[in-house]
Amino acid sequence: MSHNHDHSTDSRPEHVMLDLVPGVGALVLHTGADLHGAEIEISPTGRDEDRSHKQVHERPVSGRSLYGAVFDSLPAGEYTLWLDGSPVRRDVAVAGAAVTDISIKEDHA
User: Fold this and answer.
1) What is the pTM of this model?
2) Are 103 and 22 in contact (CB under 8 A)?
3) Per-residue pLDDT, 61
4) Which of 20, 55, 70, 81 is 20 to 30 A from 95 (CA-CA)?
């Protein structure tokens, strides 16, 4: 099973800017190195067909590599995360004006 869909696997050292306002938040998803380059999809709970995606990138932080994806500008609510067409995590709650920080390392080890 291939997770890389011919996207860049270059390291991403730049900062991520998030616009957090009432009713709109962000999700930072931590993964393992095994998902580097993979597309993770997200959909509002109950609307599985309404998906968007982000790519897992390597981000150097304090001399070590972290892997993850950042979903920005999400309306507050609950979401399902998808990998290769299968749900990885359901009912992920994203609050408005906040960053939700979760890991799927243990789900995919």
Assistant:
1) 0.86
2) no
3) 86
4) 55
Structure tokens, 53: 């995606």
What is the rounded distance in angstroms from the CA atom of residue 107 to the CA atom of residue 109? 6
Amino acid sitting at position 48: D
The edge-to-edge listing of strands for the beta sheet with 57-61 is: 57-61, 64-75, 24-31, 99-103
For tokens 């981000």, the residue is 59
Whether 65 has a pLDDT exceeding 60, the answer reads yes
Burial code (b: 16+ CB inside 10 Å, e: under 16) for 36-46 equals: bbbbbbbbeee
d(CA 51, CA 48): 7
Residue type, 42: I
